[in-house]
Every structure is written in structure tokens, then in C-alpha cells.
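User: two proteins, same treatment. go.

Assistant:
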Amino acid sequence: MIVFKWKSDLMQHLNERREGGSKIGFVPTMGALHAGHISLLQRSMGDGCYSVTSIFVNPTQFNNAEDLEKYPRTSGADIALLEAAGCDVLYMPEVVDIYDGKEEMSEIPRGGLDTLLEGASRPGHFAGVAGVVRILLEAVRPDKLYMGQKDYQQTLVVQQMLEHTQSKVQLVRCPIVREDNGLAMSSRNVRLSPEMREHACCIYQTMVKAAAQSARRELPVIEQESKEHLNSQPGYEVDYFGFYDAMTLEPLRHLPSGNGMVLLTAVWVNGVRLLDNILVQDND
């Protein structure tokens, strides 16, 4: 695995690979890697791509300085994981290499998706995401971009950005990888105590139950009962839990007939924000 710190060196290397006929697959991450990240890399390699992973904790997508400070940083373990998985290139830039000394926000229209759900709870978050993904794509120039379904809203924002810029990059959304108890794998899980990490499986269990009921019960009733159940757990506070249009994220009161339906939730567990989702109806 070749490690690059500077964008210019990375671009030169990847240009040489393209000239040799390689297709480039790209997995952007913020580090603290786990099996979910590695599954994205494995998908890229399985697609026959020369596979690039980036590790960059992007300050512009954090609207809370304490959250940025607490974000886990495990570069040594991350490098070992990527090497063992067969990653071809790791890009580990500093802030100055990404933003050239100026942390900028993307002005690319995000169609209102950035103001809902995560966007409402974390103002400016998706502007930061869109901005850094645009910069990384300009450096890597991949054929395929691999992102996880766990950050479902993020994948919609990035897809909209790609369409707006008429990019030829193909976004590949990969399934959520879960721990043995069903908890969606996340870099933030390490901040949970072992007991809370085990108990947090009730988030997924509640979602599975809600999704199974969606065809025969009123959606708002299911949502309310699910929120009450989760809020009754010690240390839990639900930010949102609901059924949404899978493309527009419009809240749904009835089963959709067009874009499909996704069940999305964000839950604070002892001060750690956990996201999860289930595609109840997928019309892709």
C-alpha cells in the first residue's frame, strides 16, 4: 500500500495508473475504521478497481467543536487494517492540503436535502460534507465512489452534487454492516461502554419491528410508539424516528407508490449520536 500526504503526489500517481488502463475506486473516510469501511474497500476491489482510501477528519462538517475533538483518531490501527485488506493507496492529508489554508464551504446546491433530519440537527454539516467530497473527487478523479448506506442522507446529498456538477463518477451505495447484536457499525461506537454498546441493539430491533408493521398499521402511530419505547431506555434520547420518501426524504403518512420508503433514525445514547436506517421499499 502506498501512502500519500500531498494531493499533488497522489494525482501524479493516479494519472500514471489511468494511463496504464486502471479504473479507480475511491472510499472516503474519516478514519477510526471498522468492518463497514473495509466492506466498501472490498467492493471496490471486487469491481476490479485500483482502490484508494482517504482518511481525513473534516473540520467543516462538524458544527460542534467538542464533537470534532472527541472524534476517534486511530491512524496506526487504520493503516494496519487497510494493508491487511489489500488497499492500493491511502491518502492521509492535513487540513492545509485539502483547503489550501482556507476552510471553505461548498456553494453547490443541495436541493434542500441538507436542511432536513441530520441537516436540521447539525446546521452546516452537509455543506461541509459536499465541500470536502468535491475536493477529494477532484484529487482522486475516481470512476466509482463507494459510500455506506448507514449515512443514507449523506449519499443522497452527494448523489445530488454529482448530478449538479454533471460528474461521470458513479456513486455505489453499499449495505450497512452490523455488529453481531444488530447495531450498525460506526466509528462512534467505540465511545460507548461495553454495556451500552450491547444494549444499543434495541435501536435496530425497534426499527425491524416498525418496518414489519408498516404495511398494516398507520405510519405515524408506529413512529410514536417506537419513539416512546426508545426514549424509555436509560440514557436514550430520540432525535428523529420516521418513515420517509427514499429520494426526497419527505415524511410519509402512508405507503408510497413511487420512490420507495426508508426508515431513518438518530438516537443519542449516553451522549453518543447513533444513526441507522432500513430501506423498507427500494425502487432502485
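Protein 2:
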Amino acid sequence: MVGKMLVLALALGTEVYGQQVQRLPLAPRPPTGEPVAPFFEGWYRNTDGTFTFSFGYFNLNLDESLDVPLGPDNFIEPAEFDGMQPTHFPSSPRRDRGVFTVTVPASFEDEEQRVVWTITANDVTYSVPGRVGVDAFQLDYGPRAMGSVPPLVSLEGTEAKGQHPTGLMLDEVRFATVGNPMELTVWASEVSVRAEDDIANRGGVALRLLWFKHQGPYGEVSFEDRSMVLEEGEGEAVTTVTFSEPGDYVLRVRVDNWDANDSTGGDQCCWTNGYVRVQVTE
């Protein structure tokens, strides 16, 4: 299954390093046993001179969710940027954009330094470098054509608000026990400014929330309501989560306004991530 190492030069100067998976020409892709490919979504220029890199992934399996712990099979180099990447890769959604970000110093403007994410899954290794300098991969924080910007998001236990893929991480660690539901509360607000003649969006845009197991040991993480909608474009969304195994977890909630006609994941806008660390005991 695993062939020799190769370098796949993708469009516009971005490279993905990986192993070639051998199969017959035109053979259908099997539903399981496939790898996970890390993706570099693009880079942001920050006002303080630093840069932020956005990363996502593509689970090539149709019917297999994978857990790849942090370590030799799931790491980021340089090591100072390691640790925020996901370890759980669901089969739905298989392609998830802007799952986490890494902020690098201004010296990365030399266009030579890279942040490389490597994943080995089902005996296949893929790596993707993130760097400054490819114009087609430059992202921005500004509004889209019809005014869409990412929602403002806050998590229970903090007054801080997050926006964009970097979002916010809850400072405190939550505690739970195996088999007992733990409540999760999110506040979100649609803050896009719409033109008065915006017929498509002037009636308001709903916010959609989707919870993920971002990091954690093997085992089920079950959300009572994994997907929720704030029809009015703001408000509170409450669900519960139950863990089947003890360990240290990170949960992620993605809040988007993709009902707007200028907001979609494929265009790298507009959503905000929120992260909650949970320590689960027996």
C-alpha cells in the first residue's frame, strides 16, 4: 500500500510531502484504511507585525474516524508551535478548514521559515508546510463582499470574546467523570454590518454551532446536541457532553454564519472557533 516517498507540488507554490498510496488506475477509494492529509489554509498579516497560519485537514476515509495522538505520528515543527493541532479526525465532516491556528514572529516575513504539520495515519505519512509569501494564500480579517465577518463568541466561565479561526481558549480546565453529562454553554453574536439594499441578507442571518472532539484519548465523546442554530443571529446555546474514557480532552465549537451568501468555508470565512479543555476521571 505504501510506496516510495514523493513530493506533491500543489498549486501556487504550496507543497504537501507524503507517501504514495498504490492502487489500480480508476479504482474506487476504499471507505476505510486511508490516511489523513493536513492542509495549510493560508496566512494572515497581523497589525503587530506577526503572522497567523491557519491549518485544516482532510480525512480521506468515508467511514472511518481516526484518533492520532500528539507525538511521533502527529506533530508540528518547530516544536515551539506543537500542541494545538487536532488528534481526532471524524469522517463527517471529512474536510474541515481553519481548525486551529499558529501565530509566528515577524521574522517569518523572510519567506524561508516554515511551520510544518505531519500526520501518520493508517501507515501513510503526510506533511504540509505553512509559510508567508504566497499571495494566493494570504487571508485577511476584513468583511466579505456583502459585509460578513466571523461571529463573536464567548464561553461559559469567561467574559472574553473570540473571533476568527484563532477564536478563544477557555482559561480554566473543566472537570467531568466518565458517563456523566457535563454542560457546555456558548454565547454568540452575528456582528456583520449589512447594506440597506442587501436583499439576500437584510432579514438577518442565523448562526450555526457544531461541536467537535478536538483532542483526547480513544473513546466516544457524545454531545446531546452536537449541532445547534441561533435563528436570531445571537444568543445562548447549551448542550451536554458525555465521555466514555478518562483522560485529557480539548473540545472545539465552530460558530459560523454560512447562511449568508458571502460566507462559506471554501472561501475561508466566516467562522470562529472556541476551545474547552476538560479533564475526565473515572
